[in-house]
Amino acid sequence: MNSTYTFTVYDHVNQLPEDWNNLAKSNVFLSLPYLDALEQSLPSNMRCFYIGIFENTNLVGISLAQFLNLNKLESFGERDQCVKTFIRNLIFRNFSAHVLFIGNNMLTGQNAFCFSSEIDSKKGVKILYDASIAIQKKLKTEGIKTHITTFKDFNQEELAAFSEPHFSNFYRFITQPNMVFCSSDDWTTFDDYLASLTKKYRDQYKRCRKKGDGIEKEKMDLKSIIIHEDKIYELYNHVALNAPFNTFFLAKNHFRLMKEKLKDKFLFYGYFKNGELIGFNTLVKNGNQMDTYFLGYDEQIQRDKMLYLNMLYDMVAYSINKGFKEIIFARTALEIKSSIGAKPEKMIGLIQHSNQLINSKMEKLFTYLEPETRWKERNPFKENR
């Protein structure tokens, strides 16, 4: 019997097929608990769609799409105040405010889709392209014009699926790399990791830990997260507002819902000084991979106590001691992450503007708005890894 592929676009998690989670086993960020937490705590300018791909009547592919209205943001981030930032924000608000992501704009890496072995990846992404057109038409009936459509983030191997003609008008772009920490087979404990560092980076570790004296770390449960919710949001917001560019801001209830829905797969660590919460970080268990999630801190204490670097070491320690093979450290702070052993992985996205003239200038425009990040990669290990 010939295969017939179809797709369905869903507006809400409670509409999804019962066997959705069977395909999401390889990625917690496409699982029903995560999607449920996300839907109940969406950023104010975000809307989610869920795509099911069927072969005849069998579910063979799942995907997340996010629509962002950047005009609903009061700020894109307040760190950089310069002419280029002003022009960039002006362009985004007037020509690129409505963005459709096939994938998760809140994460780094391929969190866009999962396909079963029964469907070829090229066919799968072609159907996702068709689904993106259907979502744009749906939005248009509501009086919303989509300016930009983008598929993100893929490594070179994953990008091979996008060789079909439908993607020929998409500009392939590269932004900051995904920083990935790979655990060595020789390490069974964090002490093994420390022993593999050169003297310079063992000294960095010792200096960092000494600076952090007086700060207590606590693994926080749902009750504790709820009690400290206002302070958690204040600390998160401080970091988010000081980022060079943001397309969303989390809702205040996001962390409590992540803990409530993902339970032990979501880890929340608070950092306290004299009984007061001064920082936090979060982790998500994703198979044999650990994904770093959002964090927050008091900037003054962060500088004085090297809090961010202490958090990075804590994440590495937990992951190695618990047997995780990789830590996804995502983008930003590239140099400090490389100083603890994370390596850059090039991430590629595809982007298309609905205006043909603007789309034809996308490479020039993108290069202007997102200049290459200059940074120095570090290698903290005695032997090249």
Task: Provide the descriptors you would attach to this structure in a database record.
15 strands, 15 helices, eight-stranded mixed sheet, Aminopeptidase, 385 residues, alpha+beta, seven-stranded mixed sheet
Describe the model.
- Helix 2 packs antiparallel against helix 10 (254-262) and helix 7 (199-211) packs across helix 12.
- The strands form two sheets. Strands 1, 2, 3, 4, 5, 6, 7 and 15 form an eight-stranded mixed beta sheet that branches. A seven-stranded mixed beta sheet has the order 9-10-11-12-13-8-14.
- The model is unreliable at 76-80 (pLDDT under 50).
- The chain has two domains: 5-176 and 347-369, Gcn5-related N-acetyltransferase (GNAT) (Aminopeptidase, 3-Layer(aba) Sandwich), CATH 3.40.630; 179-345, 3-Layer(aba) Sandwich (Aminopeptidase).
- With 385 residues, the protein is an alpha+beta fold.
- It is built from 15 helices and 15 strands.
